[in-house]
User: Which sequence fits this backbone?
């Protein structure tokens, strides 16, 4: 039997439709549209593309967006000043500093400068700390991990007591998604580059979240029949037959996992669109908190 394909496009659209209604309600009740400020440092092409998509999504949902594009050699104090000005700006509800930042910038210091109530990325150390602690809740949950959890919820996956394996331990995805799965009562294993025998962990997983950035690392013969697979990876693979000379593939070998898994996200069309949808949800939440 073939796995159910988890359609990230449809689920992201559902989230965005909900946000659009929420934005219209806020407009009707308080004559106010939420505002998101983005901060892009340097000329990383992928980051610029992501930020542009975030602005486009804002526009489609009635969220105001404010763009700051800064040179790669900006100083630490200058960048901190810009973030502080956004903290003080009453028209800004959410602040997103696109990562990665250039090497000379102290990322943690910048993320700690963001006002907690405007931390729509959920990367402020206090928000991450609350995510890690029992009985505490962050104001905002990082967008890609929140998107993964929403996909699991919409698919009806029971996480209570489930064996969950997260591949990757990045601050942006691996670590926070592992914390969220644990909060949802899964038994969580994080597999990373130093893990011995990755396959032995994968084989007993009811749920796999793959976020390592290695093209098609997970093959069908490594997974448990019926497992749910969330593939966060977006990797370029050379393909002379494709128009651009490459195609996008995930961390999961979709074709070999499809007949074995219970449910699986495709790449593209899976997690990708969820990140921006959850950012829109967080921005609406930030604006609502103001009233
Ligand atoms: N870089 C890659 N993903 C993200 C994200 O979700 N937020 C920010 N700020 N930067 C990123």
Assistant:
């Amino acid at each position: 039997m073939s796995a159910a394909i988890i359609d990230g496009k449809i689920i992201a659209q559902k989230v965005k439709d909900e946000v659009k209604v929420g934005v219209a309600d806020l407009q009707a009740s308080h004559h106010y549209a939420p505002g998101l400020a983005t901060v892009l440092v340097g000329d990383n092409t992928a980051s610029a593309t992501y930020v542009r998509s975030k602005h486009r999504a804002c526009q489609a949902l009635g969220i105001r967006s404010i763009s700051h594009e800064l040179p790669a050699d900006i100083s630490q104090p200058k960048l901190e000043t810009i973030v502080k000005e956004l903290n003080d700006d009453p028209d800004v509800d959410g602040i997103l500093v696109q990562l990665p930042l250039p090497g000379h910038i102290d990322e943690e210091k910048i993320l700690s400068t963001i006002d907690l109530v405007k931390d729509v990325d959920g990367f402020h150390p206090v928000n991450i700390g609350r995510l890690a602690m029992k009985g505490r809740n962050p104001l905002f949950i990082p967008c890609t991990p929140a998107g993964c959890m929403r996909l699991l919820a919409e698919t009806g996956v029971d996480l209570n007591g489930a064996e969950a394996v997260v591949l990757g331990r990045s601050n942006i995805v691996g670590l926070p998604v592992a914390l969220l799965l644990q909060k949802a009562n899964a038994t969580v294993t994080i597999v990373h580059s130093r893990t011995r025998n990755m396959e032995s962990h994968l084989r007993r997983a009811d749920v796999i979240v793959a976020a390592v950035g290695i093209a098609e690392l997970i093959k069908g013969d490594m997974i448990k029949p019926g497992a749910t697979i969330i593939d966060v990876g977006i990797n370029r693979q050379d393909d002379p037959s494709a128009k651009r000379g490459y195609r996008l593939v995930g961390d999961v070998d979709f074709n070999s996992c499809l007949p074995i898994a219970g449910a699986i996200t495709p790449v593209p069309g899976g997690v990708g669109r969820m990140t921006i949808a959850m950012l829109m949800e967080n921005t609406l939440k930030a604006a609502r908190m103001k009233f």
Notes: Residues 96-99, 121, 143-144, 172, 275 surround guanine (CB under 6 Å). The chain has two domains: 31-115, 143-273. Residues 8-30 form the longest helix (23 residues). Residues 152 and 230 are 8 Å apart (CA to CA).
